[in-house]
Amino acid sequence: DTAVSQTPKYLVTQMGNDKSIKCEQNLGHDTMYWYKQDSKKFLKIMFSYNNKELIINETVPNRFSPKSPDKAHLNLHINSLELGDSAVYFCASSQGTAGGPLETQYFGPGTRLLVL
Amino acid sequence: QKEVEQDPGPLSVPEGAIVSLNCTYSNSAFQYFMWYRQYSRKGPELLMYTYSSGNKEDGRFTAQVDKSSKYISLFIRDSQPSDSATYLCGGSSASKIIFGSGTRLSIRP
Known about the structure:
The complex is a heterodimer. Chain A is an all-beta fold. Chain A has strands spanning 4-7, 10-13, 19-25, 31-37, 43-50, 53-57, 64-70, 73-78, 87-94, 106-107, 111-115. In chain B, strand 6 (54-58) and strand 7 (61-66) form a beta hairpin.
């Protein structure tokens, strides 16, 4: 029973292509996140949704567009992929956003994106 | 300046040693602090959180926060090879966690 799952695990694609990464959580959480982890392991938040509403939108190129069809799913679509988009993308979820234990984030296994 | 600074390591210690991992932060609005552990090719998982200055202990792990100096520490006693991982510290405010860059730790048998 995977709590937070992502597909695909690996994604190798050419510059300029459009790709999507899907995320699903079965924890009944209200909040979901997308993070980008670069080659130096720096983990940076990109977006956060609470009950399908966008609540955090960091300084991310508008080529990245998140979509939350329901509170258990948060997908990430990337247009016109660039070399610098190569990274590991993590989805996460938490019960709430109030902080403390309610904000404990559960991470998926990551999607390794390589843009050639 | 990054909001959370962390020495990337790598840090290599023999089994049984006490490990000290440290972070500094600049954002005074942080209300909660946490440590996540990330094994190779896996997602991070919460190890400990704390919301005030002082120590919090959980088994072999102790988290320490000093808000006056904006310093976060994690101590691991009796370190085991299974503790080998990257450790990410973080501070939380405004519904988001800001992570440090992670310290890679290796415990030698």
